[in-house]
């Protein structure tokens, strides 16, 4: 029986996350979720199981409510980098989930790097 798109996505997501767990040296995880309308990012401490910081296009403060394009992803990436600095986090692993590393997901990572977060 063939796998559905959702099952394949979940397999990819777990494959990426398991690889990150193997090489994780106490770093935080920068997790990205992209929907059809929005993009959100979380900085997660896997040891304690807590979210340290987050940013999303749903936030009115970023001025990109309801936009899911590369400009919005760039603003979200720079916002998470700035919030990570405030929380005292300088390094993180980039968890792309089951999404391919191009387009909006890549824009988030590039903007976070430019903001000073070491990925």
Automatic annotation (TrEMBL):
- What species does this protein belong to? Sulfitobacter brevis
The similarity comment for this entry is:
Belongs to the universal ribosomal protein uL18 family.
What does the annotation say about its assembly with partners?
Part of the 50S ribosomal subunit; part of the 5S rRNA/L5/L18/L25 subcomplex. Contacts the 5S and 23S rRNAs.
Which InterPro entries does the entry link to? Ribosomal_L18, Ribosomal_uL18_bac-type, Ribosomal_uL18_bac/plant/anim
HAMAP family reported in the protein's UniProt record: Ribosomal_uL18_B
Q: What does this protein do?
A: This is one of the proteins that bind and probably mediate the attachment of the 5S RNA into the large ribosomal subunit, where it forms part of the central protuberance.
The lineage's top-level taxon is Bacteria
Q: What is this protein called?
A: Large ribosomal subunit protein uL18
Question: One short Pfam family name for this protein?
Answer: Ribosomal_L18p
One GO CC term of this entry? cytosolic large ribosomal subunit
List, in alphabetical order, the GO biological process terms annotated in this UniProt record.
translation
Q: Which GO terms describe its molecular function?
A: 5S rRNA binding; structural constituent of ribosome
Q: Which UniProt keywords apply?
A: Ribonucleoprotein, Ribosomal protein, RNA-binding, rRNA-binding
Residue spans crossing the bilayer: none
The record's annotation in NCBIfam families points to: L18_bact (TIGR00060)
């Amino acid at each position: 029986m063939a796998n559905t798109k959702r099952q394949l996505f979940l397999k990819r997501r777990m494959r990426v996350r398991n690889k990150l767990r193997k090489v994780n040296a106490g770093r935080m995880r920068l997790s990205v979720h992209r929907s059809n309308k929005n993009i959100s990012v979380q900085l997660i401490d896997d040891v304690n199981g807590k979210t340290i910081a987050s940013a999303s296009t749903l936030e009115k403060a970023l001025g990109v409510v309801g936009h899911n394009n590369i400009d919005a992803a760039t603003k979200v990436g720079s916002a998470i980098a700035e919030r990570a600095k405030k929380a005292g986090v300088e390094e993180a692993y980039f968890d792309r989930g089951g999404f391919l590393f191009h387009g909006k997901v890549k824009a988030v990572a590039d903007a976070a790097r430019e903001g000073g977060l070491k990925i």
